[in-house]
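Request from the bench team (R.T.):
"We need a structural guess for the complex before ordering more adenosine-5'-triphosphate. Sequence and SMILES attached. Just send the tokens back."

Command: build protein-adenosine-5'-triphosphate structure.
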Amino acid sequence: MGDPMRGIRQENSSGDVHIREVAKRFGTTAAVNKVSIDVQNGEFLTFLGPSGCGKTTLLRMVAGFLTPDAGEIYFGQALMNSVPPWKRNVGFVFQNYALWPHMTAGENIAYGLKIRKLSRREIREKVREVLELVGLPDIETRYPSQLSGGQQQRIALARVLVLNPGVLLMDEPLSNLDVKLRGQMRAELSRLHIRLKTTTIYVTHDQMEAMTMSDRIVVMRDGLVQQIGAPLEIYDKPDNVFVGGFIGTPPMNFVDAVLAKEGDAFFVQGKGFKLRVPEGKFKDLGPYLGKEVIFGIRPEDIIDQDFYSGEPGGNVITAMVDVTEPLGSEVLLHGRFGEASIVARVNPGTRARGGEEHLLLFNMQKMHLFHKETEKAIEVQEGFTVTDLGKVKQAEKRGFQG
Ligand SMILES: Nc1ncnc2c1ncn2[C@@H]1O[C@H](COP(=O)(O)OP(=O)(O)OP(=O)(O)O)[C@@H](O)[C@H]1O
Ligand SMILES: [Mg+2]
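Reply to R.T.: structure attached below.
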């Protein structure tokens, strides 16, 4: 069996895409508002954001189905604005696979090659190679109606890959699949990308897809870029409240607070709580003293005190537990303190019960602070990585008796 990548692999070195101050309006809606993004050759980049934020509009401009009102799109050095889609060497995979129902899987894949006037022998070879590549070597003669949703989507992908596009564009390609299949296809798309290294721009509103597959994520909102970065970078250092809240399930907790100081120590203080800010975590908190801020903390950074074996610290809060949601590997604890509502992701052995009080420890090494007005992140000291989560993990391993 030959290498199924042969002939399909992307050899083109100018698969980089540059989006410069691109804008598009529909009537009074600024669907895309002066967006600039540099996509590197071979990169898997994802546009992520809620419905209506402009992801599809931006992707369609890259494909050439829509013309920008302003700004430029380059492939390598070449300006693309007035180049029609079929001359851009892009492959586009849609949410609904749009296979020809009267053609077999093989014929669907061969269609584009026929138009390019390849010989019959070449076509047969390429169709076989690409079917192998997408893991469906035996279904060449079946019609779309005889294929599952996942198989249809793989054929749709094969049909695009066989043309060896310089840039692969995908708009919510997995959203019609059930949850389990979506998970499998995620892994499969990642594997394919590792093998082919085709520059890929992927659109989704599913943060799990974005987190697991992307080299970098572009978080969008209302036609504007909110943040561009590697998945963990965006997760660990969201630039603003929106990004912090959009990435992660359950989302980051946000609590209104005021920044206070006692001696050399800073505290976030609110109604019914006072939590100490780790020394040196933020660049300069001086200007925020006495000011209102938004305190952010992820559910996994709130820990059931019963499972903590480290030094007792001041960062423990008595929360009123509303409900607990056991998920098997963890428990989501919905609780309140003061006027704040929070969700914590705690050990499945927790003794916390709805309607009772429970002690929760805040891992303040992982805290976030945002400006009250702009909702922008207050800058963290470079290289701040200190964490005491190790102790918690040990305590969890030892189990509850520990
Ligand atoms: N052809 C059109 N005519 C008018 N308005 C449009 C058109 N296409 C998109 N819009 C508007 O532009 C905005 C961005 O739409 P777009 O389809 O790019 O969003 P999206 O991020 O892809 O959303 P979704 O996740 O729902 O697919 C929306 O407000 C949408 O209503
Ligand atoms: Mg869309």
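Two things stood out. The first strand starts at residue 17 and ends at 26. The mean pLDDT is 89.
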